Amino acid sequence: MSEGSWENLWSLKSILRGFELVSRLKVNFYKSKLYGINLEDHFLNAASAFISCSVDKFPFRFLGLPVGANLRRCDTWKPVVDAMKKKLSSWNGRSLFIGGRVTLINSVLSSLPLYYFAFFKAPEKIVNELIKIQRMFLWGGCSEQHKTCWVSWKQVCLPKNKGGLGVKDLELFNISLLNKWKWRCLTNRMHCGMIC
Question: What are the sequence ranges of the domains in the chain?
Answer without folding.
Answer: 6-57, 66-183
